[in-house]
Records
---
Amino acid sequence: MSASPSSIRRLDEAVVNRIAAGEVIQRPVNAIKEMIENSLDAKSTTIQVVAKQGGLKLIQIQDNGTGIRKEDMAIVCERFTTSKLEKFEDLTSIRTYGFRGEALASISHVAHVTITTRTADSQCAYKAHYSDGQLTSSKPGASAEPKPCAGNKGTQITVEDLFYNIPIRRQALRGGSEEYAKIVDMISKYAIHNSGISFTLKKQGEAVADVRTATGSAYLDNIKLIYGATIARELLDIKHESEKLAFKLSGYVTSANFSTKKFLFVLFINHRLVDCVSLKRGIESVYVAYLPKHSHPFVYLSLEVAPQNVDVNVHPTKHEVHFLHEDAIVEAIQEVIKDRLVNCNESRTFTQRTLKPGSLVSIPSEMTSKAPAKTSTARVYDHHLVRTDSREQTLDAFLPPASCSQEGDLSTEVSQSGGASETRRLAAESTHSRATKTTSQDDKETEVMEVDELPEKSRSPVKRKRDVEEEGGEEKLSGLNQPHRRLIRLRSILNLRQAVMDAEHQGLRQLFQNYKFVGCCTDNMALMQHQTKLYIVNFSRLSKELFYQLLLFDFGNFGSLKLSEPPLISELALLSLEQPDSEWTPENETKEEVAEYVMDLLGSKADMLQDYFSIEITDEGRLVSIPWLLDRYVPDLAGLPSLVMHLAMDVNWTSEEACFKSFSQAVGDFYQFKPTQEQIETEKQKEDSEDEPEDLPRSRCDIVGKGDQGDRVTLSDNEDGWKWIVEHVLFPAFRSILLPSKKLTEDGTIVEVANLPDLYKVFERC
């Protein structure tokens, strides 16, 4: 029994439209391409694109073109509605991107579309929502007619939930990252070809755009901006015109000195981004004779062919075109590129690796009784070589020269008297202190530092790693002749020191002892090298740990930084309470009462503070001095108000060990190095200009040791920038003093960012 034939039925219109839409809009990049071409047809000079989840969740395109008339908004998303074509014969002379009237219709059948548009002669913009090619209301029961709203001249199209009604198509797409990469590639190519138009592409919520070109920019500028300066340096311009074949050619190709792993081919035919397999293969065959195997060039071509010789209606996505005399035109383009490469081939650039000293290492073979000793050589490869010469350049060598520079380190002169004392003298021209000012309640800036004297004994802290040892409850100072240094027998301090030494990480200690300083990359991060690895270090956070350890290991042996105009502690406390981040509330006590409490508390501890920490407080409650922790370093005295408040409120004054620990943490936080905005701006000015800067205000401070015995020196501010302090003061202190713990790698203070052997593996694959 034969089966009866199935009846033929007319497909529902919604099914037909959805099938057609799936052919035109295959993925988010197709939808964006169609809408960009509509913006270009509308004479836009600025096109902004925003995408979310690779365009699957949201696509928004805004331009400043001619806009859409209100009368046309009712049918703008219907199929086969267009302003660019009237009869079929017009296809032979089409000069616009769109012509079939299917783009917006197809998008509206697979997504939710919102259009906001305004023409030049309209008093306001109009907004409408579309679904399945028809106007739809934004809310149930509301009118679907376009509604007036505020808006700029041009059109904004928002596409949401692409392929929401075709789940199989949505699942087939690999992911938002891959789709977004395709969008970036497509918009980059349109930005290069349309060099006079500004293109912007970014992800929703991101502040930095992935593609951004300026209005009126040149082709070369856009290529350099998008594909990099390496390509731009090797570009050769090509131009050709043939009346016989009726085509005109212009563009840029890379010379034989450039090659890449992937063929970067940007082709526009009659200003339409297309693919042409025959032309691509023809160009690759030309470069075979010039480039290494498996290497490819960058090629951007703009081909203008007589419209009557081009068939643009080949594929629904319009990414393919056919044109007459294709083989002859491809051959002509090959000859043009070949001639251009031959004419510029007088010089070639090759990478040469020189053998560095010591790269051949003699390795004696094992001695045997039967055979004589043999010596063989083994090569040390480049990715195992490290910088070992201290004279090599840092990042600062590649910056514009600063107006002020320092040569060498701090000059010192050591003299001994009867073998019982050691004195370090500082040269005035090679010392450094930081400008610091504090503001009184009358908003007057007062100078608070004045330079004076230096302690008689050495201020270099005791060298770490078991230099401090307990023998019979006393400290043993190894390697230093410091007879005047006080011996600390307090069990609490010894316990805190021991905790620091027990937490020391040997690997990090080795890293800091043998580092190479590379340079500062931000106002709190610096790069340093250790062997074949590159690390980024948060020197601001690291300096806090450094000063905390200095406060423990130099306990009771500090010099003093005396303030030229000692402020009242109560006034400093009031300044702290005026800060926006102050936790003071008027519910309990007034600011004056809190300030009085702070002054009374610290005043009652004055003897201990001066004896242990060189913090001198007068009977009237004035702060006279603070401890001197590190050579050539003076903290930012603008933080004094916060310091006195932390000492009064955050220090545990009831337990000895807890008191010294919390006290050292509070003072270490005050000494933590944080470049001020003034220092950052001054550093930028120095780097931007080679001229001598105007004289800046100088601050002074008194530096005295125990017993106020010492030599008078002047520490002038602003002789060096904050980067100089980081390189020549902080990092040497990290090398000689700091006992780093493992937590520094866990909290992001020290992070490995590059490893030379691993980088070589990457380049070997290239």
---
Amino acid sequence: MALNKSMHPRNRYKDKPPDFAYLASKYPEFQQHVHTNLTGRVGLNFKDPEAVRALTCTLLKEDFGLSIEIPLERLIPTVPLRLNYIHWVEDLIGGQGDGGTRRGIDIGTGASCIYPLLGATMNGWFFLATEVDDICFNFAKKNVENNGLADLIKVVKVPQKTLLMDALKEESALVYDFCMCNPPFFANQLEAKGVNSRNSRRPPPSSVNTGGVTEIMAEGGELEFVKRIIHDSLQLKGRLRWYSCMLGKKCSLAPLKEELRKHGVPRVTHTEFCQGRTMRWALAWSFYDDVAVPSPPCKKRKLEKARKPLTFSVLKPTVKLLRAPESGDPAPCPVELITAWLEKTLTELKVLHKRVPGEEEAELSLFLTAVENSWVHIRQRRRDHGRQLRELPRAPPAGGNVTLHPAETPQPTQDPPDPGSQVTDEGGPDSRGGEGPEEVPVAVEQEAESGTPPSGPAQPPSPGSVQHFLFKCLLSVREEGGSGDVGVQMHWVEGQNRDLMNQLCTYLKNTLHRLASAPPAPPLASP
């Protein structure tokens, strides 16, 4: 799971993900949902609500000694992600249970009541757990009682649209250490189904989306929901030392921080929750001056990730396929062969490029400027062309005579019109914004900027002189040791979105792979 290494350091699943095979051998109710593929690897169908529920219940039983029941028509929480939130609250309040009794509020606890159950079991925290949904309330209360935690967790039924103010009306002037909330992410049914809320280039979610209406949808979505909590906090202020919420969309973070700044809230911080391929964000604020404010996610880690080049290798057999067939010509070096192929391919893609001095003598470098997402268009045209070929009528059998009807008459294939070079990023749970310029060797920038385009309308502009572009990067080609393999590196320079460079890198790598795996051409027949 790609993001597990970025889990909270204390998360028990960070370096030891659940062992499905072991859990299946121990829990028969879980075993019926696992499957084994041809390689012997045990997996789970995360599109199946019953399988997801079985995993959650099994992990809570195995690792925390908790037995819970969750109806399929209500939200089924993932344990590692919820554990991240619990550990971050520990960071906010300065400990896991030491220094006196900790008291918290869980806004919309859900049928599982997972945050209070984990907080009470792990740290002995007291919880006021609120719920508006009748089914969720009944299951939450039952789960608390079945685990013998009624002395630590109080589940209360509250009216619709109740957040903090009404929930604390009947409470004494007791000061709570924190509140936590997993708000409804979506504003309507279309958003919940991923319409207009996910970038069209992103794959669909890998797991099923369960939950009742009040759990996944609210008027205005998570943005307005959290603003209501902020409004309550402005009136309650010191009744809670920390207010916090989990967010499903990164784009919600900035406007909520601006809302807090506008109202003069003195202490604000945020973090990221990583689990598998899922990203969540959390926001916390306090009106106390003496609280320790945890630092936001390390920018250095993000910067190192942004500066880390994209790499792939071209194996020696593939390099040999690019050699000129004329035996009399001196064989060019592998680095030159790959660089020439890259230049030809980039020209076909209309990606501006210019050779610049490499850092090493045996290295060749290209300075690239992409002005349109042409590699995506080419893939689409290739698919469309293949589809048209499959739809053409087959040739009649030998000696047969078939007349094509007008609707069956093959039409010449045409490339679809280029939808343009404008690339947008609609945002979403995993979206990343544009990235700023990165340090590049001065010689590279000067070499890239100094070139003047040759005269003549057919000559492309210099990569360094283009004003509007998607991204710029430095592509380096060098031989790997003495094996004959060639390594290719792409270093981000600047642009709208690093993902676009990732796409181009994948296109180049896959094109070379198809070249290497293509069947050899049949020998010509003798005359």
---
Amino acid sequence: MYFMVFLYLSLMLLGASLYLLIMNLTYILEFNFMMLNSTNIYFVVLLDWMSLLFMSFVLFISSMVIFYSEEYMAGDIYKNRFILLVVMFVLSMMLLIISPNLISILLGWDGLGLISYCLVIYYQNLKSFSAGMLTALSNRIGDVALLMSIAWMLNFGSWNFIFYLEIMKGDYIMQLISYLVVLAAMTKSAQIPFSSWLPAAMAAPTPVSSLVHSSTLVTAGVYLLIRFNFSFSSNLMMILLFISSMTMFMSGLGANFEFDLKKIIALSTLSQLGLMMSILALGEYKLAFFHLLIHALFKALLFMCAGNIIHNLFNCQDIRYMGGLVKHLPLTCTYLNICNLSLCGLPFMSGFYSKDLVVEFMSMNYLNIYIYLIFYISIGLTVSYSFRLTYYSMIGNFNFMSLHIIQESSMIMLKGMSGLILFVVFSGSMFSWMLFSTPYFICMTFFMKMLTLFVILIGGWLGYELAKFKLSYQLLTLKFLSSSLFMSMMWNMPYLSTLGVNYLPLYMGKLYLKIFDQGWLEYYGGQQMSKNLKMLTLMQLFSINHLKIYLLLLIFWLMFLLLNI
């Protein structure tokens, strides 16, 4: 039911978005939410081509994911609850997309954070619980930053930030708000130093990963920055460019050392988020949005293919057990290959239209050698881990159980995946013609024009070599164990964001418990003091035998009377 509703809504919103784009229209709707004494509280909705197009993509991907989940989660007792959680997740994202107001953005933002926690801990085990807590607490930092920006925005007399972005750009308060918004977006989109929650969130079911990593949770940060981009100062943009380029490089490097199928795809998402944020920091928000849309399609399908493979391999996620799957799962492997090639930016696939444009736009700018190198190396690393994944899963020897039944019998899952494949192939060219009415004029030398293709080829060769010499590669890894662990553990970031943050508070808690709760407070705490006071109070002695004491006091009183007489 939800699948059909979301699909129809998606098509309607796509048409409306194209109409608004062609007519160059923007609608801002205000609903009188409630009236308290003389105060009106309005609910504001922003409808322009960008919000409608993004909503259309989110609804289309979520409709395919829900359809896919019908079979993927078929063995689950609480399947309906899972579907409802996904629907609530999508609705939170919708609220965030259509909000030009910081309060309603916070509602959607917090909804995403809360429901993502519920979905990450869906499989009730220790790993899921710790991953869920890491996800929730990392995102709380961004929530606090948003709350602080809401407090600062009181100075403007309204929380509708859309009206103040350009006109107040030079204002100190607006700059402070933009710094806080960037911090919030960095936590949601898992940029350094908040990156460790993204691979940890892979504890969630695969359909959730498909939705989270394509168009909802992690893209919320990028979308918020696209909306706020007019208010960014040059200093802030340089900081954002540095952090996002480092994230892109770090995740690309980490994915080449990873053996968990879902984590490789998660690190690839992180790399693409770094790319979106860095192009945004260079001042081209439309291009960042274009790459966001195209990436959403092929990343959703990539996770769906991974889910089908994991399903067939009895929930095994280690790519070293896979190999030769193209014989057993031809259609799934075809889709996986197409998505991988689109991710690499192979000419005339959808990813090429956004990625190549992004890189060429970057090359046209006047930047230092660090940015050039890190961009091109990151592109090479993307191709490297994609080819390594392809080799391990499709070309190498089949390393799973000898007795197996691996076949493409899951028709519903295949239909859900097939709904996305045409868009993965054709959406790049289609939307590049639609969104950019004026083509970018890029004038480059032949060497620079060919550099991207050259780096892609080198990256592909490197990934193939890394995968081919499995044994020697593993021996090499053992030789340089410390460095490979450093790379695969995302530059020790999981340690920093877990043990690095909670070790001292936990140790202090232990000391507090030992010294105070079970130590001095045992003697001087509330209960012990009340016991001591009871023992010391003379009045207690009087009240042990009431009648005797009363008569004794009466005799004393009579004696005093007689003595006075």
---
Amino acid sequence: MAEVLQLETWDLECEHNNLDHRTSEAGCQQLIVRRGQSFIVTLHFAGRPYDEAVDKLTFNVETGPCPIETSGTRSSFPLTCSLEETTWSSAVEGQDGSSVTMFIFSPPDARIGRYHLTMEASTEGQGSSYDLGEFILLFNPWCPDDSVFMESEEARVEYVLTQHGHIYQGSKDYIYSIPWNFGQFEEGIVDICLQLLDTNPKFLRNQDKDCSRRNSPVYVSRVVSAMVNCNDDQGILFGRWDNQYDDGVSPMAWAGSVDILQRWQKFGCQPVRYGQCWVFAAVACSVLRALGIPSRVVTNYNSAHDTNGNLIIEQYLDQNGKLQQGNRELIWNYHCWVESWMGRPDLPEGYDGWQVLDPTPQEKSEGVYCCGPSPVKAVKEGDLQLKYDVRFVFAEVNADVAYLMLQSDMSRRKTTYATVVGKNISTKSVGRDTKEDITHHYKYQEDSEEERAVFEKAQLQKSPPPAEEGLKVKIKASEGMDNGCDFDVFALLTNNTPEEHRCRLMFGARTISYNGALGPECGSKDLLNVILEPYAEKTVPLRLLYENYGHCLTQDNMIKVMALLMDHDTQEIVVGVRNIYVKNPDIKVRILGEPMQKRKMVAELTLTNPLPVPLSGCVFTMEGAGLTDGQKIQELESPIGPGEEAKARVDFAPRQSGLRKLVVDFESDNLKGVKGYRNVIIAPLPK
């Protein structure tokens, strides 16, 4: 009778496997692999070597608290001479004396999550069981049979592996970006993302059913969309839009997802205060990339929030043409969501590819504050009946805007403002720090036959384009609209008719939050008798003074300028609207020292105070994936006077080599949410 086979030691080959599965940025302390791709395990036996003729090795993999074979959360498979590529399997790769190197293969539709690996070794009916440890299994965009497969290697690197990026803000007329540290492979982040899945209400209600559905990126991404906000669950972020952030962190102050995710875990899954749309979207993007689903943050300018589903955003004006507070339906100056790449086997053919996921809590979907995945193709084609939430996303990029002005007899006079919603839909370009306009993914060209067909399919009436003739109002901005300065905005009035028109011009400016919520007035003009000559233009300036806007400017730095021109004879109303961005100063970032892995370097951070008042409580915060091991915070002791420089030097020692992004935020009492960044190429340690 053969001696019973005894396993002495084993090695999950974390360093080799993580590098092969493109997860090495998360470190080599635990095995993190992608489904549909084999990984290596080495077994060292004591006494005698493994003999396939007499020894039988069987492996078991289990995920979730109640693993069941019929649910796809448990599998048992023998060691053989070749791998099967549709199911869990293992095969000998090589044998050297008492050591056996073998492959374990996971099917491309395996459930993602944390797995337990055990082995049963038997020799002629006698044997032992061994606990080989744990590994994490992720989605695999490199595997052609995985439903998240992407063909382009450049795109896979950008949307799965890249840990930094840019998020677009501002207005459709002044688009700017803020840098963001997604940090999906920073220490502990993958574990936090798995904990997030295990905290979701569907898991708590039925653990077996939830874990069994984690093979589907459609299911997992919808869970993430719900769990990034805390409205129905123990989600990550608490949303707030009222500029009252003293009991938390202002949404403008975040520069990355890592600190947010770590805080959520550290404080027992209590929501982190506070988030707004780009923070919700960026954190969701980090979680989805960490789980292996290709994702990117997208910004839609002039984004409609349609609460009643009629695809018309109604804005109410008083008798003096001023927007009234309390409009529930708003035009967000910009709104950020996530696009994730996946197949849609749950839908008719043709809707694979980019899907909209919106974790910002706006409206409920199937009773929960989440949105998506909604196929971008379905939005473009007007297929509003498809799941999930296509109608809501369609409204965000296509709704009409109607202004209803109160008349002296208390009736409302309606004017429709054409071509406002869904402009300059933007995301970061692949492999570069530049913007890509993807509006054409969501909409056909204005007034094209295809666009008309889409609106017909959606059973909607699209407002006709404005006539060439008649009165027109356009808002123009001046150069140098810098925070701390006085500047002009202009109403450009055009009369495209052969008659003279006598009009009233109501021209005003109010501070505004990026989501459309109005603040105080900071400048106005009411000209009762404006004469417009036939086929003539007239420019009317409005001076905006820092002393009027500075104290009521929100951290979004936005001012809404609106001009209403009313013809005295016909009572016709023409509207011009523009949201302008008041520019903050730049942060200059200098790198001192040789940029090399694990070698001390210094970042010199400088900002010039542009305001006519001092800045107190000045704080620089710096972070970067693979660079800083969390946030580096530098507080300045003295106030910074007008025109003076705020300066700090921050030490750091890069953990990883390669192209990295150092992201910087500046906060003070009177100047908040200022962002800067510097790309740094870190040389590897000499061998």
